[in-house]
Design goal:
The complex is a heterodimer of chains A (about 110) and B (about 110). With about 110 residues, chain A is mainly β. Chain A is built from no helices and 11 strands. In chain A, about 0% of the residues lie in helices and about 50% in strands. In chain A, strands 2, 4, 5, 6, 9, 10 and 11 form a 7-stranded mixed β-sheet that branches. A 4-stranded antiparallel β-sheet of chain A has the order 1-3-8-7, with no helix packed on it. The radius of gyration of chain A is 13 Å and the shape is globular. The termini of chain A are far apart. Helix content of chain B is about 0%, strand content about 55%. Chain B has about 110 residues and is mostly beta strands. Chain B starts with a strand and ends with a strand. In chain B, strands 2, 4, 5, 9, 10 and 11 form a 6-stranded mixed β-sheet that branches. Chain B has a 5-stranded antiparallel β-sheet with strand order 1-3-8-7-6, with no helix packed on it. The chains are: A mainly beta (about 110), B mainly beta (about 110). At the A-B interface, β4, β5, β6 and β10 of A face β5, β9 and β10 of B.
């Protein structure tokens, strides 16, 4: 079975631009979460979606937005990019009813803002 | 708010045993998870404790004391491939089932 997939793998943008990151969860997983990981830190929660509805949002500015599609894939959008947005963006999916303890992470998208 | 504290670095030699501690503060507790992340890779789930006590999975064990808001990950018979970052995590009460991670402990295993 395929794991969580994310695209693109790497991305270089300039300040002020907009970026869209994509995630496909494991088949059968209806919950998708997005995390930002800055070098040397743990993943920081950005958004969670379940059954196409936002179920939670971390402490991130409104420049960050996300959505989930009927096939449970998800997109994370970041507008007006800042240098500080440079990070590894991770997507994680989980089974409904499994609880929170096991999330399956994708390989991430490495975003560099110059 | 919620927070987790864990040591930033731990070093050990092959074959040794190492313990990575984690203390947490959270308004509602639903269990403590541990994840492993190799350089440039995705975090992978290692273990979960909802109740007090020790959970063993092969060379890795995890312990939880809810009264002390404390847990640890125990790695035995260390191998070079265990060199990685290890994160403890709890559920974010404000965000469905999302996780709050500690800053991570970098484990370096030498021969």
């Amino acid at each position: 079975d395929a794991g969580v997939t994310q695209s693109p793998t790497h991305l270089i943008k300039t300040r002020g631009q907009q970026v869209t990151l994509r995630c496909s969860p494991i088949s059968g997983h209806k919950s998708v979460s997005w995390y930002q990981q800055v070098l040397g830190q743990g993943p920081q929660f950005i958004f969670q979606y379940y059954e196409k509805e936002e179920r939670g949002r971390g402490n991130f500015p409104d420049r960050f937005s996300a959505r989930q599609f009927p096939n449970y894939s998800s997109e994370l959008n970041v507008n007006a990019l800042l240098l500080g947005d440079s990070a590894l963006y991770l997507c994680a999916s989980s089974l409904p009813g499994q609880g929170t303890y096991e999330q399956y992470f994708g390989p991430g998208t490495r975003l560099t803002v110059t | 708010g919620q927070s987790l504290e864990q040591p930033s670095e731990v070093t050990a030699v092959e074959g040794a045993i190492v313990q990575i501690n984690c203390t947490y503060q959270t308004s509602g507790f639903y269990g403590l998870s541990w994840y492993q992340q190799h350089d440039g890779g995705a975090p992978t789930f290692l273990s979960y404790n909802a109740l007090d006590g020790l959970e063993e999975t092969g060379r890795f064990s995890s312990f939880l004391s809810r009264s002390d808001s404390y847990g640890y990950l125990l790695l035995q018979e260390l191998q070079m491939k265990d060199s990685a970052s290890y994160f403890c995590a709890v559920r974010d009460d404000q965000a469905g089932t999302a996780l709050i991670f500690g800053k991570g402990t970098t484990l370096s295993v030498s021969s």
